[in-house]
Amino acid sequence: MEPEVNPEQYFRVKDGRIVKSLKDLVDVLNQIDDETFYHHVNVEKNDFANWVRDVLQDLYLANQLRGIAFSRGYVLLGDWYHRKAMIRAIRKRVKELKNVEDKISLTFEENPDPLVSSLKLALKKDSLQGFSSNVKSLAKKLPFVGSSVKRKEEMDKALTNR
Predict the structure, then answer these.
(1) Average pLDDT, the chain
(2) Which of 22, 34, 41, 84 is spaced 20 to 30 A from 73 at the CA atom?
(3) Is the pLDDT reported for residue 16 higher than 50?
(4) Euclidean distance between CA atoms 157 and 142, whole angstroms
(5) Computed from CA positions of residues 1, 162, 156, 153, in that sequence, does the dihedral angle turn out positive or negative?
(6) Residue-wise DSSP of 22-83
């Protein structure tokens, strides 16, 4: 599930394209020319990483995108290499988030407990900011939690530690 982005927060690429989601960002990175890419990503800035951080609120992916331009000899390897590296990082992150979301969905389908339903809403909210390591570990633990009392204690603890 990708977060919904308000129209005023769409990323407007120099060549006029509009990015509304990570899928759109992958498409744009595949299609833009070097000049357009360099306008948005250079030694002074990384507009794509900033948009992912500020609008999608995924700090993990934003840091990955930012690191690609500076950790691999930017000038020597050229723009196409960096676009491909960014595309790989985005696709990997989307797959990672989908796997966590699938785990959470399966957990809640198997457990109709109202306490779990409350946690599901909290986790969905967290998914808008990218899944944190706390949510990933919680998603792994939930199917194994026993009684309602123990489940409530586990969820309360998890939610207060976020």
Answers:
(1) 74
(2) 22
(3) yes
(4) 12
(5) positive
(6) HHHHHHHHHH--HHHHHHHBSSS-BHHHHHHHHTS--HHHHHHHHHHHHHTTHHHH-HHHHH
| 3-state DSSP percent of the chain in helix, strand and coil, to 5 | 70, 5, 25
The C-alpha angle 143, 97, 136, rounded to 5 degrees, equals: 40
Global pTM reads 0.64
Residue-wise pLDDT tens digits, 35-88:
898 899 888 889 999 999 999 989 999 999 998 866 545 544 556 788 899 999
Judged on CB neighbours under 10 Å (0-12, 13-18, 19+), 121 is exposed
pLDDT reported for residue 86: 93
Contact 19, 28 (CB under 8 A): yes
Res 159: pLDDT:
59
Dihedral angle of Cα 12, 18, 20, 21, to the nearest 10 degrees = -100
Q: How many residues does the chain have?
A: 162
Task: Tally the C-alpha atoms within 13 A of residue 89's C-alpha that lie toward its C-beta.
Answer: 23
